[in-house]
Structures are given as structure tokens and as C-alpha cells.
Design goal:
CATH class of the largest domain: Mainly Beta
Radius of gyration: 55 Å
Strand content: over 45%
Number of domains: 6
CATH architecture of the largest domain: Sandwich
Shape: elongated
Number of helices: 1
Structural class: mainly beta
Number of strands: 52
Oligomer: single chain
Distance between the termini: 151 Å
Length: 618
């Protein structure tokens, strides 16, 4: 039987034809007994991902599978979830298209976490002489090594495959094989191991094992790499491949034979090859170079016209064919089939496949209507009372939604705005929008400063008020206690509180309460009291002006021997309930001279101490 495997080489569609020959003439005097394992059927077992693969082939073929650490390898499914063998750009556990991989393949323990995979050990009850298999997804500086060992575990042969070599790559199934010299079965076990040279994990995945128990397994070592004809030379190529380690020649006429380093340039058609291996092994193989294949741009291409007056048109090309590249307006060919940020107009689209064959079409992108503001009229925010406004006038006609600082408003006339900057957005039903910043100005600020109040004397109207005031480009009216004044310095004022009001032409106001203090007024103490309620000076009272708020902090009376006779404090001189009335311990004090010690506080906060003597006479 035979099969076809697609390979990507220099962006040309190539495929490798491999042959499993049943009519190969063997070099040894034994019958050809080959076992092919592709894991698609295993006896009558029901296959599923995660199935342990160990001794299912032992009873009939004497073949077992195990991992070097004693664990059992697992069956993995293409596109499956667990076990996890590798990840390609085509998906988890998914080979690239057209690879000779069925539904199932073998992996190690189903985890990809280390730079080195757990080696797979295949053991043979009867020795084999020929081996071939496919390793999947060799990329990212990965190295795969196959070691053939004899009955005693000694190494017979080692073969290494490195990522980057022919037929390796993302999702690819890389074929390898070898035959032992002399057609004698000497291989009792195989060790398959892989490692990775960069960060990540080595994903172990293998399929399509073939083991021959005697003779040269030519079919696993022979292939033909076919490159279809291109649209430049109209010639394809056939490259014979010898994957074995023995001499092999081929011929198209069975007369003249060539070694496997010749490349044939041939037109489309069928070709019959004659093969000869060392020892007289022979085979015949048919190889086909396919006809030219042209790409085709279909009617499913997506075209998006420009919007909002921008150059934002889009074209996404839909075409059939392999390994396509795309060009717009004769620009360089690239792998992308979509173009963005296009201006309105007609565009020439060319699609080219890996053979250089092309298809051409023309696509039109229509223009659009932009969102345009004619003007924005603003009114100032008077007196910082959030009474500013703006009016949006559109130049284009359409259904618009208006936003201010990302909050939707129902009308292009927006009121109750404080002074400041606002982001105005206008959007239409097509998703087009226009953003602009609008400033709402405030009316000039009234600045009142350098306020000075000069106190008045105790019994005089000689206090004064002065200040400075300014407001940019605005006329001001000034009132003091509701009386308009035309100066910034007012004199001849009595003590007390005054209300200063400043109003600008917009009606904005600034008010300031100004207190003119009074200088300290004198107070008087009697030097004689009578202690009788009928007398004028019956109590020891401090006298001052009726409107002068003098507070008594301490009020103490002592006799001439220093004994405390009376104590009080913390009251106003206009409060008559605290004065000494000539009594001591609720009895009339004896006539004589008494001393006083008094502390008072003036309205301006000044504290004054007074002391002296007073005579009590009845």
C-alpha cells in the first residue's frame, strides 16, 4: 500500500510519496515479515485517548511498549484534551494538514512540562533488522534520537533528527528509518528520546511504526518528493529520497540507473520508477506530477466602506487555493488577506499560490459623510454659580447623539455649566464621532484685599477703614452699610461692625464684615464705701462707660492683716451681683482700711491689674 504526505519546502507545495512494497525481493533466505502499527485499530479493543499502550502486540507479534521510568505510554487523540502530547499552530495535539496521521498516535505520560521527554522503549521478542516511524511536531531547536540496541543492551546504531532539517517543522510528521547491514535481525529494543534546547517542554508524539523481522524493509526507506509545476517554467520536480543507510538506485527505463542525489525536472504526468537496493532487492513505483493549479478569488470577499470621513475602508479577500499570498495595487505579496485603513476608490487585488499562478479582481470602496461641527457658542459662568452654557451647531445633517464628558445629553444646547474645560462628543448611527474641547469662561473674579480697620478712641468717632479691590475689565459698585461710597478709604467712623459690599456689572457680589475696635476706656474705683444699702457708695463697684464691656477676671478684698475678706471674678462690670458690700462671713465688717487686688480684661483682650485700698465707714 502507499500514501501521500504533504510537506512545506520553500513555500512550494511538495509531497512525499512513500511505498510499502509487498513484492520486494529480500536479500536473506527468509520470508519478509513486517509489522506496521498506526494505532488506528488494536485487535477488538475500543480505542480512546488515554488508553495505556503496553503489551497489546506481544501475543501475536512479540512487541511491547513502555517508558524508561517504568510507566506505561498512552494513546493520544488528534485534537484531544488529555493526554497532552504537543501544541502546534493548528491546535493542541493537531498535526498540520495532509500529514499521514490518523485519529490516534502514541505519547509518553501525557504531560509536557520538561525540556526532556520520558524515553519510549520498544522491545522485540524476536529481533528486527529494519525500523521506520514518524515523529510529530519537531520545531523550536528540538532534537530527537533513536537508539537501536542488541540482546545485551549494547548500542548498535544511533540516529538523530534535529528541528530545521528537511521535513521537520510545526505539526509535521517527520519520517525516519534504517536497516541493519547484512539483512540480519539484531535489534532487540529501541529507545526513542527527545529534548528541547529552548524554554518550554518537549512534546513526545509518534505514529506509523514499521518493524521488519528479517530482510531490508525498502518501502520504509524510499520516497519521492514531488514539487508540482509552477506558472513560470511549467515544470515540476521529482526528488528521490533514500532514508535508509544502504545503497539504492533508480531508473525510468530500467536501463540507466541513477543514485539518489539526482533531481528530475519534468512536466505534469505519470512516471514509472524501477528501484534496486544492495543485494539485489528490487521494486517498481509509480509517481505522478499533478497538473497546474490556479487560485480563485470567490464572491465571499468582505468589503467595508469608509466611515466618518476617514480612510478606514477594509477589504478581506476570500480565495481558494494552497499557500496563497496576496497583493493590493501591485504592492509586495504578503501572507495577509486583509487590508485596513483604505481610502475610497478602486483597488486591484491579486492572489498568487506557491506555484506562481495568479487570479486578479477589482474591488471598490465607497466614501462616507463625516461628522462636522459648524460652531460652538458659549456663555460665561457668571459669579461662579454654574450658569454657563454652550450651543453646538452642526455643519452636516444627520441623527446625532451628544455627550459632555462622556455623559449623554438630550439637546445640543447645554446649560448650568460651571467654568472649566469640557469634552464634547458627537456620534452618529454609524459609529462615527467627533470629539472637541470647549472652554466655559468665568466672569472676572472680584479680589478684595489689604483690609485695614483703625480703632476709634474711647469717646471719639475717629476710626477708619481702608481696602483694595480689583476685577479685570469690570466696573465695581462699593457699599458700606448699604451706603454707596466712592473711595477705598473711609474715615470718621465710630467703633462697631460694618458691612462692606462690592458688586460688579454682572451682579456678582463680595461681602466682608469689618470690625472697628475701640481703644481702651478708663474705669474708676471708689476709695470709700459705706456698706449701707441706702448710701450711694454702699458697694465697692468699678465704674466705666455703660457701653464699655469691661470684664472682671479676679476680684479680691483683704483686711489690713492680709486676711481674705471677699473673693469673686469672671463677671462683667455691668453685672451688679458680684460687688463687695462691706460684709465678712455674713456679718458687717469692722470699719477701717481694706486692700483690694483686681484683674480686668478690656474688650480688645488687654488684661490690666489694679490694687489699692478702700475705707469702710458706717
Amino acid at each position: 500500500m502507499n500514501f501521500t504526505l504533504n510537506l512545506n519546502i520553500m513555500k512550494l507545495k511538495s509531497y512525499l510519496i512513500l511505498f510499502f512494497l509487498s513484492n520486494v525481493e529480500l536479500c536473506a533466505q527468509q520470508s519478509n515479515q513486517c509489522l506496521t502499527i498506526d494505532f488506528e485499530t488494536i485487535g477488538n479493543l475500543s480505542l480512546n485517548e488515554g488508553l495505556p499502550i503496553n503489551n497489546q502486540f506481544f501475543t501475536e507479534y512479540g512487541v511491547t511498549f513502555e517508558l524508561e521510568n517504568g510507566a506505561i505510554p498512552l494513546l493520544a487523540e488528534v485534537g484531544g484534551i488529555r493526554p497532552f502530547a504537543f501544541s502546534s499552530s493548528f491546535g493542541f495535539d493537531t498535526p498540520s494538514p495532509n500529514q499521514n496521521v490518523g485519529r490516534f498516535f502514541i505519547t509518553d505520560d501525557g504531560s509536557v512540562s520538561n525540556l526532556t521527554a520520558i524515553p519510549l522503549i520498544v522491545k522485540f521478542n524476536n529481533p528486527v533488522d529494519s525500523v521506520s516511524a514518524e515523529v510529530l511536531d519537531m520545531d523550536f531547536d528540538e532534537i530527537f534520537t533513536v537508539t537501536a540496541r542488541d540482546k545485551n543492551g549494547n548500542t548498535l546504531l544511533t540516529k538523530t533528527i534535529k528541528a530545521g532539517e528537511p521535513d521537520t517543522g510545526d505539526g509535521r510528521a517527520t519520517l525516519f528509518g534504517f536497516n541493519m547491514p547484512g539483512c540480519i535481525g539484531t535489534i532487540y529494543s529501541l529507545k526513542f528520546e527527545g529534548t528541547r534546547q529552548v524554554s518550554g517542554g518537549f512534546g513526545f508524539a509518534m505514529d506509523n511504526f514499521s518493524f521488519c523481522f528479517s530482510g531490508i524493509d525498502v518501502e520504509k526507506s524510499v520516497g519521492f518528493l514531488v514539487d508540482p509545476p509552477d506558472c513560470n517554467t511549467f515544470l515540476g520536480t521529482i526528488t528521490p529520497i533514500n532514508a535508509g543507510n544502504y545503497e539504492l538506485t533508480y531508473s525510468l527505463d530500467n536501463l540507466t540507473f541513477f543514485t539518489f542525489d539526482e533531481i528530475l525536472n519534468l512536466p505534469s504526468g505519470d512516471y514509472h520508477f524501477f528501484l534496486k537496493a544492495e543485494g539485489g532487492c528490487e521494486a517498481e513505483i509509480d509517481v505522478n506530477i499533478p497538473d497546474l493549479i490556479y487560485p480563485s478569488i470567490d464572491n465571499n470577499s468582505t468589503v467595508s466602506s469608509t466611515t466618518c470621513g476617514d480612510n478606514n475602508g477594509k477589504i478581506e479577500i476570500s480565495a481558494s487555493g494552497d499557500e496563497l499570498q496576496y497583493s493590493i495595487d501591485n504592492q509586495m505579496f504578503t501572507d495577509t488577506n486583509s487590508y485596513e485603513n483604505l481610502a475610497p476608490g478602486r483597488y486591484m487585488i491579486i492572489v498568487q499560490n506557491n506555484l506562481g499562478c495568479r487570479d486578479t479582481t477589482f474591488i471598490d470602496i465607497s466614501p462616507s459623510i463625516p461628522v462636522v461641527i459648524s460652531s460652538v457658542v458659549t456663555e460665561k459662568d457668571n459669579c461662579k454659580n454654574a450658569v454657563g452654557s454652550l450651543q453646538i451647531n452642526m455643519e452636516t445633517v444627520g441623527e446625532y447623539r451628544y455627550y459632555i464628558n462622556d455623559n449623554i445629553v438630550l439637546d445640543p444646547k447645554i446649560d448650568s455649566l460651571a467654568a472649566g474645560s469640557y469634552l464634547i462628543s458627537i456620534r452618529d448611527d454609524f459609529g462615527c464621532f467627533l470629539d472637541t474641547l470647549v472652554d466655559i469662561e468665568a466672569t472676572p473674579e472680584i479680589i478684595l484685599a489689604e483690609i485695614k480697620a483703625t480703632p476709634s478712641d474711647c469717646r471719639e468717632n475717629n476710626g477708619s477703614i481702608s481696602f483694595s479691590v480689583s476685577a479685570e475689565d469690570s466696573a465695581l459698585d462699593i457699599f458700606l452699610d448699604e451706603k454707596e461710597i466712592f473711595t477705598n478709604a473711609v474715615e470718621g467712623l465710630t467703633w462697631g461692625d460694618y458691612d462692606l459690599l462690592i458688586r460688579d456689572e454682572y451682579g456678582c457680589e463680595v461681602r466682608q464684615r469689618i470690625d472697628i475696635e475701640r481703644e481702651k476706656c478708663p474705669f474708676y474705683l471708689p476709695n470709700i464705701i459705706s456698706g449701707h444699702s441706702s448710701s450711694v457708695n454702699n458697694n465697692f463697684i468699678i465704674k466705666t462707660l455703660d457701653d464699655y464691656n469691661l470684664n472682671v477676671i479676679k476680684y479680691r478684698i483683704y483686711d489690713r492683716w492680709g486676711n481674705l475678706v471677699y473673693i469673686s471674678g469672671g463677671f462683667s462690670v455691668h453685672d451688679n451681683g458680684h460687688w463687695w458690700n462691706g460684709y465678712f462671713n455674713d456679718k458687717e465688717a469692722v470699719n477701717g482700711v481694706y486692700c483690694y487686688l483686681i484683674e480686668v480684661q478690656h474688650p480688645n483682650g488687654d488684661v490690666e491689674f489694679v490694687s489699692g485700698d478702700v475705707t469702710l465707714i458706717r
